Amino acid sequence: MTTYKSDLLQILSTRDYIHQTTDAEGLDELASKEVVTGYVGFDATAPSLHVGSLVQIMLLKRLQQAGHRPIVVMGGGTTKVGDPSGKDESRKLLTPDLIQQNIAGIRKVFERFLDFDDPKTGAIMVDNDEWLGDLNYLDLLRDVGPHFTINRMMTFDSVKLRLDREQPLTFLEFNYMILQAYDFRELNARYGCRLQMGGSDQWGNIVNGIELTRRMGGEDELFGVTTPLITTADGKKMGKTAAGAVWLNADQLSPYDYWQFWRNTADADVIKFMKLFTDIELGEIDRYAQLEGQEINEAKIALANATTAVLHGEEAAKEAAETARKTFEEGASDDNLPSLSTGGEIGVLAALTGLGFCASNGEAKRKIKEGAVKLDDQPVSDPQLLVTVAGDPVKISLGKKKHGLLTA
């Protein structure tokens, strides 16, 4: 592993964030001498980000931990277009009002991860609609258009892969890379931003931004860093579960369910996720890496506690851990378990899908047939069962790890 002079690249390297860099040596030299301002962009396609965005949030956190200044760019402008990267079809276009509502929901998460008040390295949050919304189309064509060639744009993965799969790519989406490149130019001019970071699918967009900024009179020393695609040990994309996305906002996913997501991490992923998503010291992570068999559960609990504490606070992490302990060790139910209001009666299949334990009625039926479903710790064998909830909540369980409460 390469040893770097700067804390920034040393942290990113030792915790396995780096997939590609445009100029690692140059960035290392700059970051060892002065405060570097860097950004990551987030489009506002939903009222909350999910775990799939967490590695990029952590990049900004690592940047600040190393003594540099992070910029969170909310894509109020680019969301109106839609990023085609990694997509087989066009995104649904959102109204401006809905985009702003989504941005308001997303903002809350960053206050947990970043310090916005430090006079030297305090994070900045901006909306790229501030500059993109005021662009005149003819001016954009004249000022920016000459710096892009169709030949080059056709080689980028976001375009090439879509066309190779014979999926339509709209002219609207084709412009996305131009707008994202313009973001870097604007951030460099406004804030002296020298670094753009993102996932591996953003490499082409990042390179475009560097080249456009230089050509339009920006600084020559500009840099890009991408992270690898984060997948689980079974090859699935990080954050995708049978029950849907693992949201970061508490009103979209309870702290307990968030804790459980990390507690259920596969053995092979625990150490990787500790490095990427927690502040647990590397020496301590090395100790966890030596655990085998049932002892690995100690590492999983540490991972769940650390990730939940960063997002929801220490108290929420403690409550989730205690709820899990009571549920698994004592067989008790607890008010902190995820709950579903039934109106007094609900089918067992609807309960399992409503709590997100199963993605479909078909899956729920299979789980019942396998004997994996229990009501108040008693096995369920009838998929047509109606559950009556009159007084106390009824505990419903799927396997040993998923538990919820059915309330009246």
From TrEMBL:
<dbReference type="InterPro" id="IPR024088">
    <property type="entry name" value="Tyr-tRNA-ligase_bac-type"/>
</dbReference>
<dbReference type="InterPro" id="IPR002305">
    <property type="entry name" value="aa-tRNA-synth_Ic"/>
</dbReference>
<feature type="short sequence motif" description="'KMSKS' region">
    <location>
        <begin position="237"/>
        <end position="241"/>
    </location>
</feature>
<feature type="binding site">
    <location>
        <position position="240"/>
    </location>
    <ligand>
        <name>ATP</name>
    </ligand>
</feature>
<dbReference type="InterPro" id="IPR014729">
    <property type="entry name" value="Rossmann-like_a/b/a_fold"/>
</dbReference>
<keyword id="KW-0963">Cytoplasm</keyword>
<dbReference type="Pfam" id="PF00579">
    <property type="entry name" value="tRNA-synt_1b"/>
</dbReference>
<keyword id="KW-0436">Ligase</keyword>
<dbReference type="GO" id="GO:0006437">
    <property type="term" value="P:tyrosyl-tRNA aminoacylation"/>
</dbReference>
<dbReference type="GO" id="GO:0005524">
    <property type="term" value="F:ATP binding"/>
</dbReference>
<feature type="short sequence motif" description="'HIGH' region">
    <location>
        <begin position="44"/>
        <end position="53"/>
    </location>
</feature>
<keyword id="KW-0547">Nucleotide-binding</keyword>
<feature type="binding site">
    <location>
        <position position="180"/>
    </location>
    <ligand>
        <name>L-tyrosine</name>
    </ligand>
</feature>
<comment type="subunit">
    <text>Homodimer.</text>
</comment>
<keyword id="KW-0030">Aminoacyl-tRNA synthetase</keyword>
<protein>
    <recommendedName>
        <fullName>Tyrosine--tRNA ligase</fullName>
        <ecNumber>6.1.1.1</ecNumber>
    </recommendedName>
</protein>
<comment type="function">
    <text>Catalyzes the attachment of tyrosine to tRNA(Tyr) in a two-step reaction: tyrosine is first activated by ATP to form Tyr-AMP and then transferred to the acceptor end of tRNA(Tyr).</text>
</comment>
<feature type="binding site">
    <location>
        <position position="39"/>
    </location>
    <ligand>
        <name>L-tyrosine</name>
    </ligand>
</feature>
<dbReference type="InterPro" id="IPR002307">
    <property type="entry name" value="Tyr-tRNA-ligase"/>
</dbReference>
<dbReference type="InterPro" id="IPR036986">
    <property type="entry name" value="S4_RNA-bd_sf"/>
</dbReference>
<dbReference type="InterPro" id="IPR024107">
    <property type="entry name" value="Tyr-tRNA-ligase_bac_1"/>
</dbReference>
<keyword id="KW-0067">ATP-binding</keyword>
<keyword id="KW-0694">RNA-binding</keyword>
<feature type="binding site">
    <location>
        <position position="176"/>
    </location>
    <ligand>
        <name>L-tyrosine</name>
    </ligand>
</feature>
<dbReference type="GO" id="GO:0003723">
    <property type="term" value="F:RNA binding"/>
</dbReference>
<keyword id="KW-0648">Protein biosynthesis</keyword>
<dbReference type="GO" id="GO:0042803">
    <property type="term" value="F:protein homodimerization activity"/>
</dbReference>
<dbReference type="GO" id="GO:0005829">
    <property type="term" value="C:cytosol"/>
</dbReference>
<comment type="similarity">
    <text>Belongs to the class-I aminoacyl-tRNA synthetase family. TyrS type 1 subfamily.</text>
</comment>
<dbReference type="GO" id="GO:0004831">
    <property type="term" value="F:tyrosine-tRNA ligase activity"/>
</dbReference>
